[in-house]
Specification:
By secondary structure, this protein is mostly helical. The chain is built from 3 helices and no strands.
């Protein structure tokens, strides 16, 4: 444990931010998983869940939760899968 007051605070702040990021990442993974499942089952709401997933991915990239290129790659993969099912 650090002895300096500012270092102690940094440890506290880092723990809080790490917890928030873990929650946000978990929620993002859940949304993506739901979208993949809806697309795979050729569900009627696949387009809507795809839109929700894209929105969640964009928000995560905006908050630097994931890298912007990672966000683009994930959106592209979902769109490709959706288009393959709709053809």
């Amino acid at each position: 444990m650090p002895n300096i007051k500012s270092a102690i605070k940094r440890v506290r702040v880092t723990k809080a931010k790490t917890l928030k990021n873990a929650i946000r990442k978990s929620a993002l993974k859940t949304v993506i998983k739901k979208a993949k499942a809806a697309i795979a089952s050729n569900d009627a709401s696949a387009t809507e869940t795809f839109k929700n997933a894209v929105k969640a991915i964009d928000k995560a990239a905006a908050k630097n939760l994931i890298h912007k290129n990672t966000a683009a790659r994930r959106k592209s993969k979902l769109a490709k899968a959706l288009n393959a099912v709709n053809k």
